[in-house]
Amino acid sequence: MIRCLLALFLTATAAFAEPIRIKDLVEFDGVRGNDLVGYGLVVGLNGTGDGLRNAPFTEEIMANLLERLGANVTGEEFRPKNVAAVFVTAQLPPFARAGGRIDVTVSAIGDAKSLLGGTLVMTPLNGADGQIYAVAQGTIIAGGIVAEGDAARVTQGVPTAGVIPSGARVEREVEFDFAGLSSLRLALKSADFTTAARIEQAVNAEFGGRVAEMTDAGTVAVDIAATGMRSPAHVLARLEGIMVQPETRARVVVDQRSGTIVMGADVRISRVAVAQGNLTLRVEESPLVSQPNPFAEGETVVVPRSNAEIAKDGTGLAEVRGGTDLAEVVAGLNALGVAPHDMIDILKSINAAGALHAEFVVN
Predict the structure, then answer these.
(1) What's the pTM value of the predicted model, to 2 decimals?
(2) Where exactly are the structural domains of the chain?
(3) Is the dihedral of CA 324, 327, 328, 333 positive or negative?
Protein backbone atom coordinates (compact mmCIF):
# COMPACT_ATOMS: atom_id res chain seq x y z
CA MET A 1 0.00 0.00 0.00
CA ILE A 2 2.87 2.36 0.83
CA ARG A 3 4.42 1.75 -2.59
CA CYS A 4 1.06 2.49 -4.24
CA LEU A 5 0.76 5.78 -2.35
CA LEU A 6 4.32 6.74 -3.28
CA ALA A 7 3.69 5.90 -6.94
CA LEU A 8 0.49 7.97 -6.88
CA PHE A 9 2.34 10.99 -5.44
CA LEU A 10 5.14 10.76 -8.01
CA THR A 11 2.69 10.30 -10.91
CA ALA A 12 0.68 13.34 -9.83
CA THR A 13 3.87 15.35 -9.51
CA ALA A 14 5.09 14.40 -12.98
CA ALA A 15 1.68 15.18 -14.49
CA PHE A 16 1.54 18.59 -12.82
CA ALA A 17 4.94 19.53 -14.26
CA GLU A 18 3.51 19.45 -17.78
CA PRO A 19 2.53 22.75 -19.45
CA ILE A 20 -1.12 23.74 -19.08
CA ARG A 21 -3.32 25.75 -21.44
CA ILE A 22 -3.95 29.35 -20.40
CA LYS A 23 -7.71 28.74 -20.59
CA ASP A 24 -7.33 26.25 -17.70
CA LEU A 25 -5.24 28.62 -15.58
CA VAL A 26 -7.17 31.90 -15.77
CA GLU A 27 -10.62 33.43 -15.86
CA PHE A 28 -11.19 36.00 -18.58
CA ASP A 29 -12.52 39.29 -17.29
CA GLY A 30 -16.17 39.71 -18.32
CA VAL A 31 -16.58 36.06 -19.36
CA ARG A 32 -18.51 34.84 -16.34
CA GLY A 33 -21.82 33.30 -15.38
CA ASN A 34 -24.61 34.83 -13.29
CA ASP A 35 -26.52 33.11 -10.50
CA LEU A 36 -30.29 32.90 -10.68
CA VAL A 37 -32.82 31.97 -7.99
CA GLY A 38 -36.58 31.49 -7.85
CA TYR A 39 -39.33 30.34 -5.51
CA GLY A 40 -41.78 27.81 -6.88
CA LEU A 41 -44.11 24.89 -6.32
CA VAL A 42 -43.68 21.18 -7.02
CA VAL A 43 -46.86 19.18 -7.60
CA GLY A 44 -47.69 15.54 -8.28
CA LEU A 45 -45.92 14.07 -5.25
CA ASN A 46 -47.11 10.75 -3.87
CA GLY A 47 -48.11 11.98 -0.41
CA THR A 48 -44.59 13.18 0.38
CA GLY A 49 -45.19 16.92 0.11
CA ASP A 50 -45.22 19.65 2.75
CA GLY A 51 -47.42 19.44 5.81
CA LEU A 52 -49.30 22.69 5.38
CA ARG A 53 -49.62 23.21 9.13
CA ASN A 54 -45.81 23.37 9.37
CA ALA A 55 -45.28 25.14 6.02
CA PRO A 56 -47.97 27.84 5.62
CA PHE A 57 -46.02 29.48 2.79
CA THR A 58 -46.81 26.43 0.63
CA GLU A 59 -50.54 27.05 1.01
CA GLU A 60 -50.05 30.74 0.24
CA ILE A 61 -48.15 30.21 -3.02
CA MET A 62 -50.56 27.47 -4.06
CA ALA A 63 -53.53 29.80 -3.51
CA ASN A 64 -51.84 32.58 -5.50
CA LEU A 65 -51.09 30.18 -8.35
CA LEU A 66 -54.66 28.89 -8.49
CA GLU A 67 -56.03 32.44 -8.47
CA ARG A 68 -53.82 33.37 -11.43
CA LEU A 69 -55.26 30.37 -13.25
CA GLY A 70 -58.84 31.51 -12.51
CA ALA A 71 -59.70 29.41 -9.44
CA ASN A 72 -60.76 31.46 -6.42
CA VAL A 73 -59.84 29.59 -3.24
CA THR A 74 -59.91 32.54 -0.83
CA GLY A 75 -61.17 31.40 2.58
CA GLU A 76 -61.17 27.75 1.58
CA GLU A 77 -59.35 25.11 3.62
CA PHE A 78 -57.39 22.62 1.53
CA ARG A 79 -54.48 20.58 2.78
CA PRO A 80 -53.17 18.34 0.00
CA LYS A 81 -50.03 16.32 0.64
CA ASN A 82 -48.83 16.20 -2.94
CA VAL A 83 -47.32 19.72 -3.18
CA ALA A 84 -44.08 21.19 -1.85
CA ALA A 85 -42.51 24.66 -1.84
CA VAL A 86 -39.02 24.74 -3.32
CA PHE A 87 -36.13 27.03 -4.14
CA VAL A 88 -34.99 26.81 -7.75
CA THR A 89 -31.39 27.79 -8.53
CA ALA A 90 -29.46 27.96 -11.78
CA GLN A 91 -26.47 29.63 -13.39
CA LEU A 92 -26.85 31.73 -16.50
CA PRO A 93 -23.70 30.96 -18.53
CA PRO A 94 -21.76 33.71 -20.30
CA PHE A 95 -23.09 34.73 -23.71
CA ALA A 96 -26.39 32.87 -23.12
CA ARG A 97 -28.96 33.91 -25.69
CA ALA A 98 -32.75 34.23 -25.41
CA GLY A 99 -34.42 30.92 -26.18
CA GLY A 100 -31.51 28.82 -24.95
CA ARG A 101 -31.95 26.26 -22.18
CA ILE A 102 -30.05 25.81 -18.91
CA ASP A 103 -30.10 23.22 -16.11
CA VAL A 104 -31.80 23.99 -12.79
CA THR A 105 -31.56 22.58 -9.27
CA VAL A 106 -34.69 22.19 -7.14
CA SER A 107 -34.49 22.01 -3.30
CA ALA A 108 -37.33 21.64 -0.81
CA ILE A 109 -37.60 24.35 1.85
CA GLY A 110 -40.48 22.89 3.89
CA ASP A 111 -40.92 19.52 5.58
CA ALA A 112 -41.49 17.54 2.38
CA LYS A 113 -40.17 13.99 2.62
CA SER A 114 -39.32 13.54 -1.05
CA LEU A 115 -39.52 15.26 -4.45
CA LEU A 116 -39.48 11.99 -6.38
CA GLY A 117 -41.93 12.04 -9.27
CA GLY A 118 -42.79 15.71 -8.81
CA THR A 119 -43.22 18.37 -11.47
CA LEU A 120 -42.05 21.93 -11.06
CA VAL A 121 -44.71 24.47 -12.04
CA MET A 122 -43.57 27.46 -14.11
CA THR A 123 -41.16 29.42 -11.92
CA PRO A 124 -39.47 32.75 -12.81
CA LEU A 125 -35.73 32.91 -12.04
CA ASN A 126 -34.37 36.28 -10.93
CA GLY A 127 -30.85 37.69 -11.03
CA ALA A 128 -29.12 39.81 -8.39
CA ASP A 129 -30.71 42.91 -9.94
CA GLY A 130 -34.23 41.54 -9.45
CA GLN A 131 -34.89 41.07 -13.17
CA ILE A 132 -36.31 37.82 -14.57
CA TYR A 133 -33.74 36.12 -16.81
CA ALA A 134 -35.22 32.61 -17.18
CA VAL A 135 -38.34 30.56 -16.53
CA ALA A 136 -38.12 26.98 -15.20
CA GLN A 137 -40.59 24.12 -15.50
CA GLY A 138 -40.40 20.35 -15.85
CA THR A 139 -40.17 16.95 -14.20
CA ILE A 140 -37.68 16.61 -11.36
CA ILE A 141 -34.99 13.95 -11.32
CA ALA A 142 -34.24 13.36 -7.63
CA GLY A 143 -31.11 11.58 -6.51
CA GLY A 144 -32.41 9.72 -3.47
CA ILE A 145 -34.60 6.78 -2.50
CA VAL A 146 -37.00 6.48 0.44
CA ALA A 147 -38.50 3.23 1.76
CA GLU A 148 -40.60 3.17 4.89
CA GLY A 149 -42.99 1.00 6.84
CA ASP A 150 -44.98 1.32 10.03
CA ALA A 151 -41.96 1.14 12.32
CA ALA A 152 -38.92 1.82 10.15
CA ARG A 153 -37.76 4.23 7.46
CA VAL A 154 -34.68 4.01 5.23
CA THR A 155 -33.34 6.94 3.19
CA GLN A 156 -30.53 6.74 0.66
CA GLY A 157 -29.18 9.92 -0.89
CA VAL A 158 -31.06 13.23 -0.70
CA PRO A 159 -34.63 12.79 -2.04
CA THR A 160 -35.56 16.39 -1.10
CA ALA A 161 -33.35 17.85 -3.85
CA GLY A 162 -33.14 17.18 -7.55
CA VAL A 163 -32.32 18.59 -10.96
CA ILE A 164 -34.17 19.33 -14.18
CA PRO A 165 -31.78 19.02 -17.15
CA SER A 166 -32.44 21.87 -19.60
CA GLY A 167 -35.35 22.76 -17.34
CA ALA A 168 -35.24 26.54 -17.81
CA ARG A 169 -35.54 28.69 -20.90
CA VAL A 170 -33.54 31.94 -21.10
CA GLU A 171 -35.87 34.92 -21.48
CA ARG A 172 -33.45 37.83 -21.08
CA GLU A 173 -29.81 38.29 -22.10
CA VAL A 174 -27.17 39.92 -19.93
CA GLU A 175 -26.06 43.12 -21.59
CA PHE A 176 -22.29 43.09 -22.13
CA ASP A 177 -20.41 44.77 -24.98
CA PHE A 178 -17.63 42.24 -25.32
CA ALA A 179 -16.75 43.35 -28.85
CA GLY A 180 -16.10 46.90 -27.62
CA LEU A 181 -13.35 45.98 -25.15
CA SER A 182 -10.00 47.65 -25.71
CA SER A 183 -8.12 45.33 -23.36
CA LEU A 184 -8.52 41.92 -21.76
CA ARG A 185 -7.65 41.03 -18.19
CA LEU A 186 -6.58 37.48 -17.40
CA ALA A 187 -7.39 36.67 -13.76
CA LEU A 188 -5.35 33.76 -12.44
CA LYS A 189 -7.34 31.11 -10.55
CA SER A 190 -4.39 30.73 -8.15
CA ALA A 191 -2.53 34.01 -7.78
CA ASP A 192 1.23 33.56 -8.20
CA PHE A 193 3.85 36.04 -9.43
CA THR A 194 5.91 33.38 -11.21
CA THR A 195 2.94 31.96 -13.10
CA ALA A 196 1.75 35.46 -14.05
CA ALA A 197 5.21 36.32 -15.37
CA ARG A 198 5.32 33.13 -17.44
CA ILE A 199 1.89 33.92 -18.92
CA GLU A 200 3.11 37.40 -19.82
CA GLN A 201 6.20 35.99 -21.54
CA ALA A 202 4.23 33.30 -23.39
CA VAL A 203 1.60 35.76 -24.69
CA ASN A 204 4.24 38.25 -25.85
CA ALA A 205 6.15 35.46 -27.60
CA GLU A 206 2.95 34.27 -29.32
CA PHE A 207 2.10 37.71 -30.76
CA GLY A 208 5.68 38.79 -31.36
CA GLY A 209 5.49 42.03 -29.40
CA ARG A 210 4.71 43.55 -26.04
CA VAL A 211 0.95 43.03 -25.88
CA ALA A 212 0.69 41.57 -22.34
CA GLU A 213 1.75 43.08 -19.03
CA MET A 214 1.59 41.57 -15.55
CA THR A 215 -0.08 44.03 -13.20
CA ASP A 216 0.01 41.88 -10.03
CA ALA A 217 0.19 38.25 -8.91
CA GLY A 218 -3.34 37.54 -10.09
CA THR A 219 -3.78 39.69 -13.21
CA VAL A 220 -2.25 39.93 -16.67
CA ALA A 221 -3.55 42.68 -18.98
CA VAL A 222 -3.62 42.20 -22.77
CA ASP A 223 -3.84 45.17 -25.13
CA ILE A 224 -6.25 44.29 -27.96
CA ALA A 225 -4.97 46.96 -30.36
CA ALA A 226 -1.34 45.83 -29.97
CA THR A 227 -2.22 42.30 -31.13
CA GLY A 228 -3.20 43.50 -34.60
CA MET A 229 -6.34 41.33 -34.58
CA ARG A 230 -9.76 42.70 -35.43
CA SER A 231 -11.81 41.68 -32.38
CA PRO A 232 -11.42 40.57 -28.74
CA ALA A 233 -13.07 37.26 -29.60
CA HIS A 234 -10.28 36.38 -32.06
CA VAL A 235 -7.63 37.41 -29.52
CA LEU A 236 -9.28 35.28 -26.84
CA ALA A 237 -9.47 32.26 -29.11
CA ARG A 238 -5.74 32.53 -29.77
CA LEU A 239 -4.86 33.09 -26.12
CA GLU A 240 -6.72 30.03 -24.84
CA GLY A 241 -4.44 27.50 -26.49
CA ILE A 242 -1.08 28.96 -25.35
CA MET A 243 0.77 26.48 -23.12
CA VAL A 244 2.29 27.67 -19.82
CA GLN A 245 3.95 25.72 -17.02
CA PRO A 246 2.33 26.95 -13.78
CA GLU A 247 4.11 27.43 -10.46
CA THR A 248 2.39 26.79 -7.13
CA ARG A 249 3.24 27.16 -3.48
CA ALA A 250 4.30 24.12 -1.49
CA ARG A 251 1.11 22.84 0.09
CA VAL A 252 -0.05 19.87 2.18
CA VAL A 253 -3.80 19.22 2.25
CA VAL A 254 -5.31 16.71 4.66
CA ASP A 255 -8.89 15.54 5.15
CA GLN A 256 -9.41 14.20 8.65
CA ARG A 257 -12.75 12.55 7.84
CA SER A 258 -11.47 10.34 5.03
CA GLY A 259 -7.79 10.20 6.00
CA THR A 260 -6.69 11.64 2.66
CA ILE A 261 -3.26 13.30 2.43
CA VAL A 262 -2.14 15.25 -0.65
CA MET A 263 1.30 16.83 -0.93
CA GLY A 264 2.64 19.22 -3.52
CA ALA A 265 5.89 18.58 -5.37
CA ASP A 266 7.83 21.29 -3.51
CA VAL A 267 7.07 20.16 0.06
CA ARG A 268 10.18 20.05 2.27
CA ILE A 269 10.61 18.74 5.82
CA SER A 270 13.57 19.64 7.99
CA ARG A 271 15.36 16.99 9.98
CA VAL A 272 13.16 16.01 12.94
CA ALA A 273 12.60 13.09 15.30
CA VAL A 274 9.09 11.64 15.69
CA ALA A 275 7.76 9.25 18.34
CA GLN A 276 4.39 7.65 17.71
CA GLY A 277 2.69 5.06 19.87
CA ASN A 278 -0.63 3.88 21.29
CA LEU A 279 -1.73 2.88 24.77
CA THR A 280 -3.83 -0.30 25.02
CA LEU A 281 -5.91 -0.81 28.18
CA ARG A 282 -7.20 -4.34 28.68
CA VAL A 283 -9.54 -5.29 31.54
CA GLU A 284 -10.79 -8.89 31.92
CA GLU A 285 -13.43 -10.08 34.38
CA SER A 286 -13.30 -13.71 35.62
CA PRO A 287 -15.76 -13.99 38.54
CA LEU A 288 -15.67 -17.07 40.79
CA VAL A 289 -18.78 -18.62 42.33
CA SER A 290 -18.52 -20.02 45.90
CA GLN A 291 -21.38 -22.45 46.64
CA PRO A 292 -21.90 -24.38 49.94
CA ASN A 293 -22.05 -28.21 50.04
CA PRO A 294 -25.44 -29.96 49.87
CA PHE A 295 -27.44 -29.91 53.14
CA ALA A 296 -24.97 -27.36 54.55
CA GLU A 297 -25.97 -23.98 55.85
CA GLY A 298 -24.68 -20.99 53.88
CA GLU A 299 -25.25 -18.81 50.83
CA THR A 300 -23.89 -18.80 47.28
CA VAL A 301 -21.37 -15.99 46.90
CA VAL A 302 -19.91 -14.53 43.69
CA VAL A 303 -16.30 -13.52 44.20
CA PRO A 304 -15.10 -10.91 41.64
CA ARG A 305 -11.74 -11.41 40.01
CA SER A 306 -10.32 -8.81 37.57
CA ASN A 307 -7.16 -8.66 35.53
CA ALA A 308 -6.08 -5.21 34.24
CA GLU A 309 -3.01 -4.36 32.21
CA ILE A 310 -1.70 -1.50 30.09
CA ALA A 311 0.38 -2.23 27.01
CA LYS A 312 2.25 0.40 25.04
CA ASP A 313 2.74 -0.36 21.36
CA GLY A 314 4.63 2.06 19.17
CA THR A 315 7.47 2.56 16.79
CA GLY A 316 9.63 4.47 19.23
CA LEU A 317 11.60 7.54 18.26
CA ALA A 318 12.16 7.60 14.50
CA GLU A 319 14.11 10.13 12.51
CA VAL A 320 12.69 11.85 9.44
CA ARG A 321 15.60 13.33 7.51
CA GLY A 322 15.26 16.51 5.54
CA GLY A 323 13.92 15.60 2.09
CA THR A 324 15.25 17.13 -1.09
CA ASP A 325 12.23 15.98 -3.08
CA LEU A 326 8.75 14.57 -2.60
CA ALA A 327 9.89 10.96 -2.83
CA GLU A 328 12.19 11.28 0.20
CA VAL A 329 9.53 13.11 2.23
CA VAL A 330 6.92 10.40 1.61
CA ALA A 331 9.44 7.61 2.20
CA GLY A 332 10.49 9.19 5.50
CA LEU A 333 6.90 9.42 6.75
CA ASN A 334 6.01 5.91 5.57
CA ALA A 335 9.06 4.57 7.43
CA LEU A 336 7.13 5.17 10.65
CA GLY A 337 4.62 2.50 9.59
CA VAL A 338 1.51 4.38 10.71
CA ALA A 339 -2.01 4.63 9.31
CA PRO A 340 -3.08 7.71 7.31
CA HIS A 341 -5.11 9.16 10.20
CA ASP A 342 -2.08 8.87 12.50
CA MET A 343 0.11 10.37 9.78
CA ILE A 344 -2.17 13.43 9.73
CA ASP A 345 -1.52 13.94 13.45
CA ILE A 346 2.22 13.55 12.84
CA LEU A 347 2.13 16.15 10.06
CA LYS A 348 0.28 18.53 12.39
CA SER A 349 2.97 18.10 15.01
CA ILE A 350 5.78 18.54 12.47
CA ASN A 351 4.11 21.72 11.25
CA ALA A 352 3.74 23.00 14.83
CA ALA A 353 7.45 22.32 15.38
CA GLY A 354 8.28 24.51 12.38
CA ALA A 355 9.86 21.66 10.40
CA LEU A 356 7.21 21.46 7.67
CA HIS A 357 8.07 24.04 5.01
CA ALA A 358 4.74 24.21 3.22
CA GLU A 359 1.27 25.64 3.60
CA PHE A 360 -0.71 23.21 5.78
CA VAL A 361 -4.43 23.00 4.93
CA VAL A 362 -6.84 20.93 7.05
CA ASN A 363 -10.32 20.16 5.70
Answers:
(1) 0.64
(2) 20-30+177-244, 34-170, 251-291+301-362
(3) positive
